[in-house]
Every structure is written in C-alpha cells, then in structure tokens.
UniProtKB/TrEMBL annotation, chain A:
Xref: PROSITE patterns: STAS
Name of the molecule in the record: STAS domain-containing protein
Record organism: Actinomadura soli
Domain STAS: 2-113
From TrEMBL, chain B:
Protein name: Anti-sigma regulatory factor
InterPro entries: HATPase_C_sf, HATPase_dom
Residue ranges, annotated region (Disordered): 1-24
Record-annotated Histidine kinase/HSP90-like ATPase domain positions: 23-142
Biological source species: Actinomadura soli
Length: 125, 146
C-alpha cells in the first residue's frame, strides 16, 4: 500500500494525488492528514485531484470525511482540479459533495484559504 | 517494485478473460482494464469515466460483500451496431436477499453510502443483477457509444 505524500506550504497542507487510489491508501490518507493537521497546526488542507481520472463513492466519501474532520480541528479543506468528466460522473452517481469546498485549480484553492497561504505560494519576491 | 498479492496470475487481462477480484489492488486493476477496453471501444471520455466508476463500485462490492470473485470485460456491440463494453462481475458470496431494496437509494449493508449498486446502475446503459441467497451474485453492466 502506498502513502500519499503530504506537503506543507505556510499553514496549508497540500495533498496531490498522483496514484490510482486503492481503498487502504484512502483510509491511510485520512489518518495521516488528521495527524499532520495537529502536528503542523495547519489551518487549511488542499487536495489536488488534477491527476485523478475517477472518483467513486468511496473516494468521494473520503473528501467529505476529510473536510468534516479538518473542520473539527480548525482547518478548512478545498478540493481542487476536478476533471469535467469526473464531475459529471459524480453527480450522476448521486454524490454532489455538498459539504466540500472546491476550486478550479491550486492557485484558486490557495486564494480561498486566505492571503497568507497565497503569499507563501507566490514565493519569490 | 512490490508485486501486490493476487497479481502476476495473468498478463494483465486479455479482453474477455476472467480476472480475479481478491484484494483492494485487484479493484484498482479492474478500473484500469475497463478503462483500456472502453477507450478501445471508442467511448467518449465522459462515458469511459462513467463505466470505469460503475466498475469500481461493483468490483468493491464483489470484494467486500461477495467475499471476492471475478470480473470479465469485453468489447461488445449494442443496438444498431453501436460499439461499447460489457463488464460482468461474479461472486459466490452470500447473495442479496432483497434485490429491489438493495438497488434503492441509500440502502447499505455496511459502512458505505449505499450508492454502489444504485449508482452503478445510473452510470450504465444496461444493468442486470442476478442473485441467489447463499449462492452468489452476478452483475452485468454495459455502456454504448453515442
């Protein structure tokens, strides 16, 4: 089983999913993120799914779980980069992810999470 | 590179061949095989995504509820010669006592959302479920090109 790496930019944790998500990987990511939010004192979580070509009900539920869990620990979650075909499929599947914030790309996601984080990603002066 | 358990039994699935679903890694492999077949059948990206998602739900059911089983994917021809794919999932698990209820929205036998079967049906152009309590379950889905 693979662990999805969790990166830290300012007070935001960034998870970019680049593998075919297996159920155990999904569950491990939820636990890893919970630990890292506390350890890093993070106030935002961005899950980048640009490279994810399908989201089924199990993976979709992970987004909702992570969003709810991080909210309890004072962190906001944004899912970014959903492909159009994935969005169409999710709605037809019956999963609208009402409680999950989304943004079109990483930059928009960082902006949603506040200027501090956006400044960190803008980086070099 | 690690070889996941349940792998290495086949060259990755020739079309029409039965592929085992005996682990979470096999569920991932089912997605890949269905994606390849759907692309080869000329389905649009959206239709490929729909049938792969349906297959992912059904493969998980086969593994988690059916105690494992097999999947077979093949290119097929639908009405008026439309090309597409058909995917068959078979298990010898406990079966489903009340199929109508199992297909209903929100019904769940476990910790899921209950979207697996009903969602897979909505995402497919054809859906057939045969189940006998104590004997097992076979689900067939198909998606045709537009």
């Amino acid at each position: 089983m693979e662990h999805v790496p969790i990166l830290k930019i300012g007070d935001v944790l960034l998870v970019s999913i680049q593998v075919d998500l297996q159920d155990q990987t999904v569950l491990a990511l939820q636990e890893d993120l919970a630990d890292r939010i506390v350890a890093a004192g993070a106030h935002g979580v961005i899950i980048d799914i640009t490279a994810v070509d399908i989201v089924d009900s199990f993976i979709g539920r992970m987004f909702a779980t992570i969003a709810a869990m991080s909210r309890l620990m004072d962190a906001e979650t944004v899912v970014v980069g959903m492909r159009p075909a994935v969005a169409i499929t999710l709605v037809e599947l019956g999963l609208s992810l009402g409680g999950v914030r989304t943004a079109l790309d990483l930059e928009e996601g960082m902006r949603l999470l506040g200027a501090g984080a956006a400044a960190a990603v803008a980086g070099a002066p | 590179m690690t070889t996941p358990p349940g792998d290495g039994r086949s060259g990755g699935g020739t079309p029409g061949e039965e592929v085992p679903i005996a682990s979470n890694d096999d569920v991932v492999r089912v997605r890949q095989l269905v994606r390849t077949a759907a692309a080869a059948a000329g389905l649009s990206l959206v239709d490929q995504t729909k049938i792969v998602t349906a297959a992912s739900e059904l493969a998980r059911n086969t593994y988690a509820h059916g105690g494992g089983g097999t999947m077979r994917v093949e290119q097929a021809a639908g009405e008026r010669g439309r090309r597409g794919v058909r995917v068959v999932f078979t298990d010898a698990g406990p079966g489903i006592a009340d199929v109508e209820r199992a297909l209903g929205e929100g019904w769940t036998s476990g910790a899921g959302l209950g979207l697996g079967l009903s969602g897979a049906r909505r995402l497919s152009d054809e859906f057939d479920l045969r189940s006998e309590p104590g004997k097992g379950t076979t689900v067939t889905v198909a998606k045709w090109g537009r």
